């Protein structure tokens, strides 16, 4: 009975799961057509829908000829670039649940099919009536730090284009730390963006988050590389952008024996951080 019930639920285009006053929806991508290569079908399908944290997408397709590749940003989506996927699904009946707000991008790894239109981008918003559960206690850092971005210069157009790279490269950012962005009306905002391509090209079209208070405190909740820019292209091009490498909680770290490198790219800075931490005495 349980299998029959689940099959009926997933065959419906959308349904609502009730849990108290909270609800989540499941959308079958492309409805009865499923996940196929067809021009503009998914743009039209997504238009008018409002996706929330907690909602899910169901991708139905033939796994022998297709898959679903989630990519990090708008440029990868536009150019059907699968070189750095966030996730790859290939069961033929994939259920993807949204756990974070922001833009989410899905394409076929078959570039010809992607170019023909087999790609989907959706904006996911956080509905306050559906609160996001807090992280488990093991992921909360008790002694977190707040870093004022840019130091005395704060978040402003720098005289030296590499100013913010130099500001961040010697700092040990960890999960649980926060960045404090302070700025005036001339700068106007802080955009957190998805990936390296958006960062390099100062692309503000698909931000993960937008901050505009002039005194923005951004908590670093996940390890990896985080990217921040100004929405003003001229300011960003002049160097008003920040890339930070965030390390895992100390108790969760493992330290690979990596060779010394001189290229301080984002991931190299993270490696440098790990190497420095390993070499320091701990009590």
TrEMBL record:
GO terms for molecular function: electron transfer activity. The keyword Disulfide bond applies. PROSITE patterns: PHYTOCYANIN (PS51485), PROKAR_LIPOPROTEIN (PS51257). Residues 1-24 form the signal peptide. Residues 25-126, 145-248 form the Phytocyanin domain. Gene3D superfamilies: Cupredoxins - blue copper proteins. The keyword Glycoprotein applies. It holds the Pfam family Cu_bind_like. One of its GO terms (cellular component) is plasma membrane. Keywords: Disulfide bond, Glycoprotein, Signal. This is Phytocyanin domain-containing protein.
């Amino acid at each position: 009975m349980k299998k029959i019930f689940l099959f009926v639920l997933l065959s419906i285009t959308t349904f609502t799961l009730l849990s108290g006053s909270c609800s989540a929806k499941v959308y079958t991508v492309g409805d009865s057509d499923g996940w196929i290569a067809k021009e503009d079908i998914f743009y039209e399908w997504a238009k008018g829908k409002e996706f929330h944290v907690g909602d899910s997408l169901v991708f139905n397709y033939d796994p022998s000829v297709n898959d679903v590749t989630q990519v990090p940003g708008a440029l990868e989506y536009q150019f059907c670039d699968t070189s750095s996927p966030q996730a790859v699904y290939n069961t033929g009946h994939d259920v993807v649940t949204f756990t974070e707000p922001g833009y989410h991008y899905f394409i076929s790894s078959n570039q010809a099919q992607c170019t023909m239109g087999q790609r989907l981008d959706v904006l996911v918003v956080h509905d306050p009536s559906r609160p996001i559960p807090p992280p488990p206690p093991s992921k909360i850092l008790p002694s977190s730090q707040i870093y004022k971005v840019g130091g005395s210069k704060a978040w402003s157009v720098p005289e030296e284009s590499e100013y913010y790279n130099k500001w961040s490269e010697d700092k040990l950012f960890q999960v649980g730390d926060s960045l404090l962005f302070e700025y005036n009306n001339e700068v106007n905002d802080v955009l957190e963006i998805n990936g390296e391509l958006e960062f390099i090209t100062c692309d503000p079209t698909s931000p993960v988050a937008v901050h505009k208070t002039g005194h923005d405190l951004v908590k670093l909740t996940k390890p990896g590389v985080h990217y921040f820019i100004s929405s003003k292209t001229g300011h960003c091009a002049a160097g008003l952008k920040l890339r930070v490498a965030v390390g895992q909680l100390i108790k969760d770290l493992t330290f690979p024996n990596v060779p010394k490198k001189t290229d301080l790219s984002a991931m190299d800075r993270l490696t440098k951080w790990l190497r420095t931490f390993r070499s320091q005495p701990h009590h």
